[in-house]
Fold:
Amino acid sequence: MAENRFDTDPKVKNYVWSRAAGHCELCSLDLTQDLITLTPAKLGEVAHIIPASPKGPRSDTNQTPEISEALTDDPNNLMLLCPTCHNIIDKTPDGYPKDDLTAVHQAFLSKVEFAANHAITHPSAGIIIIGKHFETPVRIDPGELQQALWRDAIQPICRPLTIEGPVVDRYGRDDRYYEQFKSNINQKLEHDLTLYRGRLGDNPIIGVVGIADIPSLMIFGQQLGDRIRHKIYSSNRNTRLRWPDVNAPVPEFKFSFTENGDAEYALVMSISGDIPDRDVLSILPNCSIAKFSATMPNYNIVQNEEAISHFGIEIQKALSQLEASSPKPIHVFAAIPAAMAIKFGSLLTTNHKHPYAIYDRDPPSNAFRLHIKLNELKEKR
Ligand SMILES: [Zn+2]
Structure:
């Protein structure tokens, strides 16, 4: 500890904690609970804009020990930060000058004040969709979806509803599997959600998150479509239902195809991973491949909500071009995150009456096979 470094009075620290509503003033992390165990914790640190020592970060040459001592307990000079942000601002003080930090600090306090003075106006419900075709059972904690909704200032009025897919029997994911999954989905959307209709009001927001096979997630998205206003969340291995980085730039996508009115297009989406052309051509040797790819396909491409909506905008443009170019069914091969599969399905409603055929890989060969024709399923009802 440097010489002439003064300690902040515990009473002042308590004030800084409550003033910031227990959240990091830079990244908004909830500092009152452990991210992994979800148990109460005290993760924050009271940080100084102008340091508690004449030699600390952002000190200026005129700073005497007396000034430092006075600033140590001055709430206007104090911020609540998570250890990561605290470390960043103190290790790179040039990037976080006094005026910038003060502005961020003031903006954060205004945000807390606004949130505290305004009632939550959007009642909501959460829906978790879980497929059972995985080797290891997966689950998403309903409590975490509740928290995600609260964080977005939409008020869940009931425990999240969980939609489970059917067990995959020895016949694999056949038509019966998808019909059963679709029926489970509609049961929840039509029946269970209607039970809450009065409390949900006319136009509720439904928060959805899922882990299931791609065709089932697309069916789910299509059923949500434009009949239910929804927000899609994403389950990340490390951050669970928190966005890994709300400030990360949206991923870059590129789309290319050769216009051909007679073509049966194979739309190949390489976003969470890469799909080689040969895997598509081995099942559809005469198709014309239309590629929709992330510049750098990877499993963690969904860093925030904008990544999903940006994907929705870009893929919609691509679908419009393909639909305008050929009336034949569009064959879809997707290596995409669950949230984007739901988004994709949600676009195949009012705006896209075009027939789509969805392929997926099957064990043990891992080769692609046609799983569902989305519009055919739709017409049966
Ligand atoms: Zn932080």
User: Anything to note?
Assistant: The chain has three domains: 10-117, 122-232, 253-380. The chain is about 35% helix and 20% strand. Residues 10-117 form one domain. The CA atoms of residues 20 and 112 lie 7 Å apart.
